[in-house]
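Weekly structure sync, notes
Attendees: PL, DS, HV (note-taker this week)

Item 1: phosphoribosylaminoimidazole carboxylase
DS walked through the input record. Source organism listed as Nannochloropsis salina CCMP1776. Sequence as pasted into the shared doc:
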Amino acid sequence: MSGILSRLSHGEITPFEAKTELLRLQPQIWKGAARENTEKAKGYDSVESFAKVDISRAARTGLPEIIFGEGKTPEQLVAILTSMGRRRRLEEEGERGLARGEDGRGEMLSATKETAAVGAGTGQAGPCVEGGEGAREGGRGGGSVTTVGSGGQGVRACAAQGVIVASRVSPKKYAAVVALLKEEGGEGGVGEYGWVEYKPVPRLLILRPHGRKEGKGGFERRKPPSIGLITVMCAGTADVSVAEEAGVLAELCGVEVERAYDVGVAGIHRLFDALGQERVRRSQVVVCVAGMDGALPTVVAGLLPCPVVAVPTSVGYGVGKDGLAPLLTMLNACAPGVACVNIDNGVGAAGMVVKILRGAKGG
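Item 1 (cont.): predicted structure, written out as tokens:
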């Protein structure tokens, strides 16, 4: 491992090549962990007795670990956010140290070696933030921003990577989490690790890294390089929450997202209008979210050349069986090129999209 880092610091290999070689070492690192009984080398951080946070998932898979908020207490969520925030700061310190080593201005920080040892770090495969429209107001999904920092002096900012996300967080639970964050916002508190943004439509809680102020009343918005363009469609307005879960998470990973909502096949002329839009036609993947009969993905897959990710929702009446009917429709799609995720699973749809786009770019 030291040899890999040394070659990287001398410019003999690229950061991507170094990351690839370090990932190949992970099995050996994990075997060493069993002997040494050190959690750092196992690739996860234990949070009290109730959670083991996967700190190397972004490096392994290109997707961050997303906390599932349902079934967790506000106190558990805060403890997990604290752990992930500390790890993120360690990674950032390691990356800064590595940069100094490359420039020959100083030695690499020990945190760099620790980060590499556990296979963590955001790197090229880490999550990205779409820092565009509506950042302070909560974006398309609606929402609010709460600044949390040491002594309450945190700074809101959009960063290109390093966000931490919890899904399925109710407004009531979000309010409780923010209250706990503010209580612990002094020295050593969660607030040191970023500011909290909440999007009530998809029910996403996002912990973003601190950034710098940009002029009077403004904040920096570093937009990451795009990994591709997709369209998120939903059949009805009742499906928007699931569609936004997919769309917002895709944006956090650097995907450009076009939206076309309430375009179900019951009024198919609405769908044709959407399909005529230039950005929809250029989309590399289309996510189709639908409940009731779930026919939208089949129609779209029969009209567009790109892959379609189908998301059934639990919207509908009676024998729809909480989404089972649209799920079966989508699994039986006649048009080829449809991949179906679980009922109401916007997170899974976003993950599928990101992996398709990154795979097309060669990782």
